[in-house]
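Hey team,

Filing this mostly as a record. A colleague (T.K.) asked me to run one chain through the structure pipeline before their review meeting, and I want the input and output archived in the tracker in case anyone asks later how it was produced. No errors, nothing strange. Just documentation.

Input sequence:
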Amino acid sequence: MKLLFIRHGDPDYSIDSLTEKGWKEAEYLAERIAKLDVRDFYVSPRGRARDTASLTLKKMNRTAIQCEWLREFAPRIDRPDRKDSPVCWDWLPQDWTADERFYLPDQWYEPPIMKAGKVKEEYEWVAEGMDTLLAGYGYVRDGHLYRTEQGNNDTLVFFCHFGVTCVLLGHLIGASPMVL
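Output structure:
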């Protein structure tokens, strides 16, 4: 099985869509993806991801399944150096690399700042969404690995966001998403 994670094109966050450059990126992407044999498409509910997907789906005369858990991974944390509450990814490496737990796949969400932001709960929700989806294709999570009950060469395409892609890749390969 092949999983393709595609981050949305250049965003215009003020309208949750794409900039002119982002639409051009989506157009180029549609040309590339249309050449693939894709079994199914999945998309975040956010406009910028749906808009990025729209040109590929139109070109291929297909639809995508919208998954709420593909939305941007956005738990807010209270960093002592900021007055606002940024998303948990909004750190410079020198700000989090001193704590070894951030490197560990089963502890990166344990530091107090992550606990207060309920990062683990959101991580588990996203991971459960992916595991449920993959089980439908014959790949069942068994501890840190997947047991193949019905192997295939299917290609699945996910139109989503940077943060959730890091979370999903970390979950799939057994790594902390912080290092990704």
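Quick notes for T.K.: The CA atoms of residues 30 and 59 lie 7 Å apart. The longest strand covers residues 2-7.
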